[in-house]
Write a structure and sequence with these properties.
mainly alpha
Length: 252
């Protein structure tokens, strides 16, 4: 079932998800479906990381042959795209529909971050183009709706949403990298709990006055008041929204 349909130019598996293509006839593996394949691939990625996902590994998870999967999915790249959409479909979170545009867009970003934290392997799949799958487009629609009453031009709404999602994805990637490093033998990761102390030992106040001012303020201390990374996400997101707010104000 590989190849593109002349109507959309999309792979057959994508058309099947959209419901614009008939399902293939049952193969030798009774009950096998595209949904089962995607769910199995998501489970493999959750247990083994995205590097563990292959057509043969997913087939083994399903008790099927790798060739039987190709009746539904034309390639591993197709499967990865379907997995991303399936992961966000698992979130089962309602559209943020109440509050100001800022509150709604903030909640939208939090939902996206939740998705990346629940399915960190999504971050390891390169972005190769604009979103085209159902759950991804539905999520983009939600983001655009948050700016519906702002008076922004349509292109500015899209640019604003892309700015927020770019920040969120970048932050999620940083968090994921640090989490992975903390579980490894990486010497830099082991040094993080005593980072401020190391700065004092390795540098002089004369050469790094601004950095020492940050250390002296207790910024790197683990005082238990908040998770530093969560605080950083909130701080960064608020600054991004501040900028969008300036744009909104100019339209009012």
């Amino acid at each position: 079932m590989s190849g593109d349909n002349a109507e959309t130019g999309l792979p057959a598996s994508f058309e099947l998800v959209w419901g614009v293509r008939d399902r293939p006839a049952k193969g030798p593996k009774r009950g096998l479906s595209l949904e089962q394949i995607v769910e199995a691939a998501i489970d493999v990625a959750g247990a083994e990381g995205i590097g563990g996902v292959s057509m043969s590994r997913v087939a083994k998870e399903l008790g099927a042959s790798a060739m039987s999967l190709y009746r539904y999915v034309g390639s591993k790249d197709e499967l990865l795209a379907l997995m991303i959409d399936g992961a966000f479909g698992r979130l089962d979170i309602a559209e943020p529909a109440e509050g100001t545009w800022r509150e709604r867009l903030e909640r939208w970003a939090e939902i996206e971050l939740t998705g990346y934290r629940r399915f960190p392997w999504v971050l390891r799949i390169p972005i190769t183009g604009a979103p085209i799958m159902p759950n991804q487009l539905r999520f983009l629609e939600w983001g655009l709706r948050t700016l519906g009453g702002t008076g922004l031009a349509e292109e500015d709404k899209l640019s604003s949403v892309l700015l927020v999602t770019s920040f969120t994805r970048s932050f999620a990637m940083l968090s994921s990298d640090l989490a992975a490093a903390s579980e490894s033998a990486d010497p830099t990761a082991r040094a993080m709990p005593k980072y401020g102390e190391l700065i004092r030992k390795l540098t002089t106040r004369a050469e790094f006055p601004a950095l020492h001012a940050v250390v002296d303020a207790g910024t790197f201390d683990d005082d238990g008041e908040f998770d530093g990374l969560d605080h950083d996400f909130r701080f960064g997101l608020e600054r991004v929204l501040d900028g969008i707010g300036k744009l909104v104000d100019r339209q009012s």
